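U., I forgot to send this yesterday:
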Amino acid sequence: MIRTLGLIAMISGLLVVMVVKYTDPIIKEKERLALEQAVFQVIPSVDAKTATRVSFALNKDGLKRLDEHEGAGEANMYAVYDDAGKLLGIALQAAAQGYQDVVRTLFGYNPDCQCIVGMTIMKSTDTPGMGDKHTLENNKAFMANFTALSAALATDQSKLAHPIEAVTHGTKTDPWQVDAISGATISSRAIAKGLNTSAQKMLPLVTHHLPVLLHNSHQANER
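Result:
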């Protein structure tokens, strides 16, 4: 009986490993495609038929344009251009711990107003009907927070002038505050925290490399 159970356990473990190995790249590819498609959602007035999305790897060492296929997994920033090569906006990822798991979002940034102009939830497993993606994104008042959320930099351009923060529903007084949803405060705060963390880190780098990004959509890498 012990040998039989051991054999069954070994076979079961092997099957689990094989399934994970087979499905993992498929899942990652679907997530990548969903992310790239969401880029156009977070930048207002974009015509997906004529706009161009360019993937970049941006960090303290420099800005690197990525090929559409090779190295696409390195991308942490997406620039969107119109058919004339004008920069329409930049999309960045954000994440923070929610009630049950990490809430992952994608947000659009407009350098002209130094503000966040769109946001979509890529993943949220928080309580259905309260903090899940469908409930949050269908709350028009909550989503209005992200049409012109201030993300202006401080004078030295090393950080945000004012941290993005969630406040109790109905108490928002400043353009960098997120008016939380009553009953979904934890999820609302997670989204605001993720945006703040990402913006504090990435927007000073975006601003530093903005002349290259503005030049046009088809030029080379900068390191």
